[in-house]
Amino acid sequence: MPAATSRAVPPPNMSFTLHGLGVSGGIAIGRATLMSHATLEVAHLTISPRMVDKEVERLEKALSQVRDELKAVKGQAGNAPAELTAFIDLHVSFLSDPELSEMPKKIIRERRCNAEWALVQQMEHLVEQFEKFEDLYLRERKYDVVQVVERVVKELLGHPGRGGLRKGVTEELQIVVAHDLSPADTINFKEQRFASFVTDVGGATSHTAILARSMAIPAIVGLSNARALIRDQELLIVDGQRGVVIVNPDERVLEEYRLRKEQLEIERNKLKRLKTAKSQTLDGAEVSLLANIELPNDLAAVLESGANGIGLFRTEFLFLGRGDMPSEDEQFEAYRKVVKGMEGRPVIIRTFDLGGDKAIDQKRTQINPALGRRAIRLSLSEPKMFQKQLRAMLRASKYGNLKILIPMLAHAHEVEQTLNAIDHAKASLRAEQIKFNEAIEVGAMIEIPAAALAVNMFLRRLDFLSIGTNDLIQYSLAIDRMDEEVANLYDPLHPAILMLLAHVIVSAEKVHAPVSVCGEIAGDPEMTRLLLGMGLHRFSMHSSQILEIKSRVMKADINELAPQVRRMLRLDDPTKLREALEKLNAS
After folding, report:
1. Which one of 88, 290, 508, 521 is most buried, counting C-beta atoms within 10 A?
2. pLDDT value at position 91?
3. CATH value of 49-156 in 3.40.50.1240, 3.30.750.24, 1.10.274.10, 3.40.190.10
């Protein structure tokens, strides 16, 4: 089948394929339902001085109406996944952020322009700021900003709300095709039967991807022009694993995918039986399977998955959609909720992994934010902010097994400064007679090649390690995996990456220090046996991936895998490495 390569609409009933990023696995077969998409190309109008106040008032009214609309949607959410309502809260908070609620008013007054244009100008400025973030999850929050502004613009233009799914369509499952989807859109059609959604934009950690995984719905994002090429009611096959959408498939292809879909559903039902099973290899090695979370509301999915704990709690969500710093008490309540909910199981909380180009110093422009003042570098340069977070973490440690994880370490002096900061936070709590875990464990996130190569200096000073493979691969290979022109070079099987992983794992094992992998490869079933053979006993991933990884663990024998992996690590030919991995997984 020919791939669609232009925006020209194919003839009716023509079969073609579209390729994007599969962010939630599985197969869906159904009819396309096109969602409307509001254009943000608004006119620039100059208004008279006497109309300025009225224009500001018009914007305030639109912001208020959209805020009320989103709150009403949340109130009707019923049993919708927690991720949906959490993102709606995020959108509501954006509407109250001075960056969106006040700055456009300033633009209206200074430039005597219409509200729509002022709002879109400020949106473009904010999107540019979000794009500077190195953290992928934070960078993709720009789509949330766009969605919020889109709703307000539609309100200003007199076209509130967005179209939903057709009512009464029950004979065939529907596949939502959209430029993008907001959480409110998803809740609005949650009562309908829909099998999947595909969007033009989005990435691996966009809210669309997160929601798809939480709802166990196949999804593909980043298709670029699906909304323009697909017609309403056309038959679609969505292969979430391969990132392929097949439009108007012929009968042979359709039958093949129906059989594959049935087999996947059988396998999925089998996996559910493993929830309470012990995560142990055939030769008796216990393997800890931990979950990664972004929000406290992710806790329900973690508990449902049967995870052994939380291996990575990203705390950056506290900064999203607000114009000020989160207070110590706000942070404490968020951490306590998660720690108490895990009932003694480990909860590893990462300190803020923020860039220095937003929230702290918006006037300072960095030439390369990815290599600048971010993560622990930023925290150490902002001691008041850091003390708030450390005190909140220490206070929450009283309620369970909380551990502190430090991101982007590269130097021994950064460890010393961090430990001194923790000691200072402890001393201040003691002075106030506030209880906390005096023996709280502190770990290093290994995501810079220098840290991986000199890992022993961290092992001598800290209690555990967590390997962030997403950044480790990008930094080692000098590749931005979000850049389409070089993304094909992003390779977890590069010999250098395998050597770095093996070196960190073996080094930690020698001194009996716990080490986990918390990047995407931890949740990739094709990498499970390789990592086990390297000696890894702790995997941290999205909760939806845990049962499949557990099934791989329970079928593995480390005594057999270890010598095969050692031989594999001596290879430097990419083709032979992939052949060796296939052989390892087939054995």
Report:
1. 290
2. 87
3. 1.10.274.10
